[in-house]
Amino acid sequence: MPLSLSTLIACVLGVATLVSSSPTTPVHGIAPVSLPQEAFSPLIPQKILATANTLRSPAQYPQFTDRVSGTWQWFSPDTWTTGFFPTTLYALHTRSQLCPGSVGDTDWLALARRWSAAEIPLETKTGVGHDVGFLSFPFSEELLVNPNNATAIMAVNNFAKALAARFNPTVGCTRSWDASDPTDFQVIIDNMMNLEVLFRSADLTGNDALRQIAISHARKTTVNHLRPDGSSFHVVDYNSTTGKVFRQRTSQGFADSSTWTRGQAWGIYGFANMHRNTGMPEFLQTARHMASFFLDHIPANGIVPWDFNAPLNPPRPADTSASMIAATGLILLAQEELKQKPENTTGAAVYIQAAADLFKKTTDLAWNPSWQSLLSNGTVNNPAQNNLTGIVYGDYYYIRTANELVAMGLASC
């Protein structure tokens, strides 16, 4: 489904209002955007390096901060978020190439490799289940730098094998959470992000069965996680024996009928990525549909709440991680629009402008120089009252969003 008229008009008009002084030449007919100065602040490499220099023994990884001083809370490697900090280090290596001199003379690549090492035992023994896809992120980044790195190749293949083992052909999906009742086959919208490792391993091995698992999972998610208006359920429960859906619900959102914003953001990114990996138009349509809902439901102040349907009173927390995941997903979607024949320049401009707007509003709200994280106002799990924190993946996608815009020639460092 195409973007709604309200989103299209608002975002297209916005393209003319957020043009930077440099660069000034449109790319694919899209006007460049101006990012806030914080996007390339020296505080970014300073904070990330300070965290990287606290590598612990035995290894632990930052996931979120406390709510008062912004101090990182540390967790064992066998945690679904472990891959994000080393992937952030790879993102700064990328930035050192995109914006020479902007991140100091630190060897970010060496740090990224060092921080990835504690994940290697998780290839064969882990409790994260489906989230092996997230664990694979730093190794996929390494293969972009050195396609022959045997350690990274083995990691990607092992993590893909673990995810594929959770596939049920009757259901047509990979299992997300394990349940005490083995017939309760739970699938969460987040799992769209884990499918990437299947494609990377298929590229390495030629095993097309991995691609087919990812395609099947995404198709089932389109049918059973999406509502007609483009919003999404967080969790779908299937009967593992019959493959039938017996419940559609939330775990981290406000209500079963509401839209948890981080889940919606995972979906935008996940389906845009499915199109990138397959070229199948159905996935582009799904990504557009989810993006349209997300953009049409951002409040007038531009701040993404933790759930679009959460009550306004008491004041609902924001989720800056959802905002930044969505921004990166929208850029990926724009890139896919530019691959269409003819190029969908209008659609791509909408998504680029929306990503820039999200970036600016998030910076205005949550850039916090005194915290160890880059951003505050993240919501890890609001039903568990874990909110108003910095979050490691929120910081990663903050850096990634700016990197992508620079790489496209639409922003300057």
TrEMBL record:
Signal peptide: 1-21
Protein family (similarity comment): Belongs to the glycosyl hydrolase 88 family.
Keywords linked to the UniProt accession: Hydrolase, Signal
Species of provenance: Cristinia sonorae
Protein name listed in UniProt: D-4,5 unsaturated-glucuronyl hydrolase-like protein
GO annotation terms (biological process): polysaccharide catabolic process
Sample GO molecular function, one term: chondroitin hydrolase activity
Cross-referenced InterPro entries: 6-hairpin_glycosidase_sf, 6hp_glycosidase-like_sf, UG_Glycosaminoglycan_Hydrolase
Segments crossing the lipid bilayer: none
Organism superkingdom: Eukaryota
